[in-house]
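I keep forgetting this: the sequence line spells out the residues, with the fold written below as integer tokens. I include a record here:
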Amino acid sequence: MRGLIRRAVAAAGAAAEVVLGAGAGAAAAGTGPAVLAFRPAPYDHGPVPVGQRAARTFTLASTGGQASSGLRITVSGPTASAVTADTCRASLAPGKTCNARVRFAPARSARPLPRCGR
């Protein structure tokens, strides 16, 4: 595989991404590609008051026929979201799992949506 493969899960308005490098799925041919999925997915922390925190641990499972490589967990979206801990290493073998903890801590309220119509 060449380039980057991204798998995302909604997490409090952010996306926790698994980023795989060009070496992903480097195991023997014919066993199927590396397949990764987060649980729970999708997930929404719901309303979180300014100054409060909400956190959730996500499990990343490898269900494909090959190990992944170049694995890195990142969060995109609001800066109020961050990966605070993870057990994921550079690769994940078939049938194995790892965990990533994502924290959402808003520093300010979101702007209200504009009203349409009358």
Summary: The chain has one domain: 5-104.
